[in-house]
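Sequence in, structure out.
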Amino acid sequence: ASSLAVGSTVKLMEGGTPVEYIVVNQGIPENSSLYDSSCDGTWLLRKDIHSSRQWDTSSSNDYTTSSINTWLNGEFFNGLGSAEQSTIKQVKIPYSTGGVNYTINSGVNGLDTKVFLVGNTEVNFASSPVDGAKLDYFGTDTTNRRIAYYNGSISRWYLRSAAIESSRGVIYIDTDGTSSSLNATSNLGIRPALILPGNARFDETTMLLKW
């Protein structure tokens, strides 16, 4: 995995079907201290939107207790193939708490997780919250690279970042690659992200993850 070029695609099994994921970073993003050593690996982001879902059913923008965090590490993770489940790293990712008095929890205090949504800064937005560092894939042609498809149509998709102006808003990527925010109960696209160890292996022909 560590030899794969950023921007290349590999395949992971979801519900018995191979699905494309983009290599979006190698190693800790920009060597930022916001990540602990668990995040040193090959970062993958689902190429297309998986489904349209609520970020949180109770209108809270606390990512740690969000419905989407529960779903990603429960139903979604459990639907991955055996090789995927045994290989995906347990990591600690930085995240922001919502509201005007928000804080950034990072490093060893990051959220313990396996599957997650990418954050505001990771997709190269300069606005607050600074809840991570830029992923290399989003360093060039950034606006276009933020655009994602759901069932063949360009669609909006959620980040893990809480809007700092309220306790209910969540940041999302619009259809033109810019960002905005709305209530966490809204249904928008979900693109799972995860990190593999650098020594994970892929079949050279199919680009499927191997044991």
